[in-house]
Structures are given as C-alpha cells and as structure tokens.
Amino acid sequence: MTRTAIGAPSKDDGAVPAGVTVFDDDYPAVANLDPALLRALREAAADALEDGVTFYVNSGWRSPAYQNELLREAVVKYGSEEEAARWVATPETSQHVRGAAVDIGHTEAKAWLAEHGAAYGLFQIYRNEPWHYELRPDGCSTMYPDPTHDPRMQR
After folding, report:
1. For residues 119 and 111, what is the distance between their CA atoms, to the nearest angstrom?
2. How far apart are CA 132 and CA 151, in angstroms?
3. Which residues lie across from 122 on neighbouring strands?
4. Average of per-residue pLDDT across 130-153
5. Does the pTM of the predicted model rise above 0.90?
6. Could you tell me if 60 and 103 are in contact, meaning their C-beta atoms sit under 8 angstroms apart?
7. What's the order of all strands across the beta sheet hosting 132-135?
8. How far apart are CA 152 and CA 144, in angstroms?
9. 1-46 pLDDT, tens per residue?
10. How is residue 79 annotated by DSSP?
11. Beta bridge partners of 124
C-alpha cells in the first residue's frame, strides 16, 4: 500500500479527502469504480444538483491493501473480527475493492438517494450503512441488516 508522509493510505489506494464528488476523475476511488455504477451515480448526481444536492464520495474503489488496513482498524475499534465484519469486509469479499460500491457523504445526498436512487438502479444494501450504495439495475429485493447477513460476504 502506498502511504503518504504521515502514514495514511494514499490517493492511489483509494483514499479521498473531504470534498471529492462523483465527477472527480483525478481520484482512483472515483475513476476506478465500475463504469456502469459510475454512469448511474453521475446521472443521479446531475439530477440531484438540480435540487441543490451534491454527491460527495467518502469512499469508492479501494486497493486490497487499503481494505485490509480498514479491516485491521475495525477489529481494534470493535474488539473482534466478528463485530468488525458488521462494518468492514475482507479484501476478498469487499465490493469496494471490486469498484462495485460507493459510500456517499452528507445527509442531504443520502436522503436524496434513499428517495430517488432506485430510479437509477442505486440501492442501499445494508441497513446499518445508509451511506453504502451499489448498482442493482434489476432492483434490490433485500436490504441486509449488515454485511454479515450478505451471502457475498461469507468467507
């Protein structure tokens, strides 16, 4: 994993500073998202801008090393691998590593997506993560309580 001078994950690993939007291709966290997901996000974001809402990217694509670092930090924070798994996936199962998930920031954007996201195929997947969105063009019949209930997360 590439690190900045202070030891934090770098832009090349998918780290983003505050203020990055879904239109900022200078950041791998945005540019490395699945093209269909990025198209849907940008279409939704353009429409949301008409309502005065900006989609900020708190996290998008992540390198496997960055994902592993986030998982290690979550184990320390939550006290066990089992509890950490409610919030952070392994690099092998993470939709972020695949570029298939995005965490949207700011309350207004999350509220806008909760109301309008389905029209773009964008769905909140986990009840405990109102910021986490994935593209499901055919709809999403299941919202899991947290990632531990998602069959894709089983190791």
Report:
1. 14
2. 17
3. 135
4. 93
5. yes
6. yes
7. 56-59, 101-105, 132-135, 122-124
8. 11
9. 554 444 578 999 999 999 999 999 999 999 999 999 999 999 999 9
10. S
11. 133
Which 3 state secondary structure label does DSSP give 49? helix
Return all residues near 113 (Cβ < 8 A) that are at least 6 apart.
44, 48, 55, 104, 122, 124, 133
Q: Tell me the two tokens of residue 79.
A: 């006290």
DSSP secondary-structure letter at 27? S
Contact 22, 106 (CB under 8 A): no
Six-digit token pair at 55? 């989609």
Q: What are phi and psi of 80, to 5 degrees?
A: -160, 160
Tokens coding 36: 């269909």
Question: Is residue 41 within 8 Å of 102, Cβ to Cβ?
Answer: yes
Spatial contact of 28 and 41, defined as CB atoms under 8 Å apart? no
For 116, residues 6+ apart whose C-beta sits below 8 A from its C-beta are 44, 47, 48
